[in-house]
Design goal:
One of its GO terms (molecular function) is methyltransferase activity. By secondary structure, the protein is α/β, with parallel strands linked by helices. The protein is 34% helix and 24% strand. It is globular.
Length: 253
Amino acid sequence: MSSRALSFGAMAEAYERFRPGYPVRLVDLVTAYAGRPVRTALEIGAGTGKATRLFARRGVTVTATEPDAAMLAELRAHVPANVGTVRSAFEDLRPGERYELVYAAAALHWTDPENRWPRMVALLEPGGVFASFGGPVQLADPAVEAAVRAARSPFLATDEVPSPDGTPPEQHMQWPGTELQRSGWFEDVRQSVVERRLTMSARDYVGYLSTVSAYLVLPAHEQREVFGRIVRVLPATVEVTADVTVHLARRRP
């Protein structure tokens, strides 16, 4: 794992407080695609359990895996009784029980690409569903976004995570759909977007940025400086787009 992938634990409470959760429609998309009630699921890189809660509240028995102890402790404080937890990176999970659904919420890009899909297949029942979903929180006003970009420029050219396989943004099918299509292990690969627009205070938006890996790996004094610069150029409240891109695929029988 990269240093950015391992940077979140120190900010577990902030991650829980400032990261937007996931819309209920997400579970509807996954279950409609499955075509039957989903009873068991494995979550990869569960973080503080924002997606875990959605599926568990629908009666799914979720096993949430997360390599960071602080994130896992935060998750355990917020999830219902039908959630089991395992402290483990995806690469360290051992084949054994198979699940009807395996999913990753804004976490798949941190997994090792080597043997990613054979590992995934080993965790899924034949015909089982894989789901990946997430997306950046972006300022909706271009002028505000430009001001923030200028404020952070001495420290960061960008705070985005690039496409893991280099898929250009203008291409319709985005990663990981591109990898799923090439893998040979999956069929019926689909991509959809759940559109969302949210309003946040300037302080909460900066709080969100404090959980973004590009900022987390900066030295502490640079973090303080860049967040101070950003908050000074923000209005009191900001509108953000927080669209969730969903990829779904079915393990071949």
